[in-house]
Design a protein that fits this description.
Layout: H1 3-6, H2 41-62, H3 72-82, H4 89-100
């Protein structure tokens, strides 16, 4: 039997990385643009929440974190690492949803 056949495949929830990937620090946020005026306050809140969730999802994926491993504590510690305010439970939920989404 070939040696390749004896190797076990990692479980879908296990990272295949040998060691965690370090983020390129210092983190520099993208240049901010002026938001369109005249929207209701809730629109701005939702927009900013989505931006934060995307930043956190990208950082977690860069670190090799699988969506099932992304607990609120891990997401909040990553937020501190990249220099954004700790997210709410709603934003953490959105981060996990973004990490699961694949195209």
């Amino acid at each position: 039997m070939p040696a390749a056949a004896l190797k076990t495949k990692p479980l879908p929830t296990q990272s295949t990385a040998k060691r965690p990937v370090q983020l390129d620090l210092p983190y520099v946020p993208v240049e901010k643009r002026v938001l369109p005026p005249g929207q209701p306050r809730e629109w701005y809140v939702t927009h900013n929440r989505r931006l934060k969730a995307m930043r956190l999802a990208i950082a977690l994926l860069d670190l090799g974190v699988h969506p099932t491993q992304a607990r609120n504590a891990k997401i909040r510690s990553t937020a501190v690492l990249i220099g954004v305010h700790p997210p709410s439970d709603t934003t953490c939920h959105m981060v996990r949803a973004l990490m699961r989404y694949s195209r």
